[in-house]
Amino acid sequence: MKLKEIMEVLKAEELWDFPTDFKVYSAGAADLMSDVLMLAKENSLLLTGLTNTQVVRTAEMIDISAIVFVRGKRPESEVIELAEKLDIPLLLTELPMYEACGILYKHGIKGSSQVEILQK
Amino acid sequence: MKSYKSDKKYLYADRKDKNHKGKFLMSMRFDISGGNLDSAGEASSTIKSKLKQLGIGYSIIRRVAIASYETEMNIVLHANRGTLSVYVAEDHIKIIAVDEGPGIPNVELAMQEGYSTATEQIREMGFGAGMGLPNMKKCSDQFEIHSDIGKGTKVMIVIFF
Ligand SMILES: Nc1ncnc2c1ncn2[C@@H]1O[C@H](COP(=O)(O)OP(=O)(O)OP(=O)(O)O)[C@@H](O)[C@H]1O
Ligand SMILES: [Mg+2]
Q1: pLDDT digit string (tens) for B22-31?
Q2: At B151, which CATH number?
Q3: Is B47 within 8 Å of chain A by CB?
Q4: Residue B128 lies in a domain
Q5: Cβ contact (<8 Å) for A61 and B65?
Q6: How many domains does chain A have?
Q7: What is the C-alpha separation between B66 and B58, in angstroms, rounded?
């Protein structure tokens, strides 16, 4: 599924102007960053309810392909600026975590542990 | 292969680095201040991009990035101040983190997955899963940690190419 399709199904807003025509194979959801670092594969989508700069830093460390902020929690502008600098797409959806994950799963996005590591 | 809690070994490794400075392809050192969450992660970010420039392989960079970020965050969250050093040699990368802080009373316990003394405030910021130290160890080929209560903590991580 492409990021632009994910944006559609999650009715998500783009938080800065990034390309959306690339494929996303897997996703993971967490609010604790060490869990993300322990579990997530590179090039996967991260859904989170946390909106601070550390989310972007964590995503940078493991090459997360895009971050989805759930439940309409909008990050501060410096968080968005850092993501833009690091070229990490940011999406914002009004959906709560469980629903956002459920919709993506229904559309065939696998969990991070169900896919092989994909190199860019 | 993976050992920890050996103080002497750690000190030796550190001294060896100083004597062999010329042999390193690159070395970097960063001052990390405790409690400063806004800039937390900047050192690891710089380390990651420098390693990329050196043309180091993707999976090695990933392991170094995770290990350095977890050590950096532990200094920021649990210590007063510290330094994070990275040495790139012919066949390995070494990360050494030294901090001044409260130290860890029970290192064995701290190494267990899920063990954390993080406050609710730290959890709200997305840390305190108790996965940092176990993940550092998982990412490394050699791992050593030594802590002096009331003084500080030293972590040494080696990742072979
Ligand atoms: N540099 C340090 N100085 C003092 N205490 C530390 C240090 N590093 C770790 N600790 C102690 O060891 C515990 C476990 O550390 P670990 O990194 O595994 O988990 P955490 O930092 O609590 O949470 P996480 O890393 O998952 O966000 C910490 O909660 C803290 O009590
Ligand atoms: Mg930690």
Answers
A1: 578 899 999 9
A2: 3.30.565.10
A3: no
A4: yes
A5: yes
A6: 1
A7: 12
